[in-house]
Design goal:
CATH architecture of the domain at 191-338: 2-Layer Sandwich
Radius of gyration: 35 Å
Oligomer: single chain
Length: 344
Amino acid sequence: MTAYVLAYIKEKKMWLLLLAGMAAVYLAVAGLYGYDGAVGNMLYAAWLSFFFIMVGCFFDFLGYRDRCRKLRDALEGGAQGDYRLPNPKGLVERMYQELLCEAVQERRRLVSELDGKQADMADYYTMWIHQVKTPIAALHLLLQRMEECGEGKGNCRQSAEELFKIEQYAEMALHYARLDSMSSDMLLKKYDIGVIIRRAVKKYAVLFIGSGLGFSMGEIACEAVTDEKWLGFVVEQLLANALKYTKEGGIRIYGADSAGNPCGDQAVDYIAVEDTGIGIRAEDLPRIFERGFTGYNGRMERKSTGIGLYLCRRIMDRLGHTVKVESEEGKGTKVILGFGQEME
């Protein structure tokens, strides 16, 4: 209420000062002419005028306050497209409201048009990804037959690795296209996290074999309410990054505490994926989950799209889990996945 009163006085101060000035002029003129009792009579008239002016201002203020409240309600309901404005008071306000209504209608039209374009693009990408899987599957069969016939085993292995990468890039595009509608594609229930991780590792066996890197994974006692497909995608992205940026040494997956320290075989709420790769620069670490950010390593290696870790963070947030990265340039990277908190 106080804010409305102060705003009203500020807006009407010119008229209030003008009325006070007029009253002062009347009193001054009466005093100059020196009529008997003129000043007293004029002062009495001034007080009566002041009283009626205050009554008028009071009722005018009530209307002003109601209009402000309606405008505030319209402003707060604007995100839902609910613009219930008060009736215009005068020609100027009517013209302002007409301009506002035209702008709102144009905004709704543009938003609707943009939503339609995005939906069309998402449908197209989804259709394209499903279509490209057909030749990928055919190439897998051809490579398998070539290996069975003993035709260029070394070349077959390299071709299988590159084909697997193509397939994973297609899967990344599919998950990216489905990210906004992820909630309709989830099946949440309690899973054994170790089983999900082992399936992801098995899927990447062709790259592990070709890389010559060491790998170790102990028994992981961790259960959580999650979605198997989406969490599996996150683990696959972490394995892909570890393989991409690790030239020697190996990759290790183990149960950990919140600080990423190994916890042996006891039940845990955190899983660490650690590699001995090139690491991440300290100045790049705060931005690695931003969409499109590749950092120094991505620019040097020319292999990064800046999408993988962005998807990981978005998916983990949607699942109600956490993801944290610790890294030191030249000494490797550790990614810690947390499953201990309640679902959102």
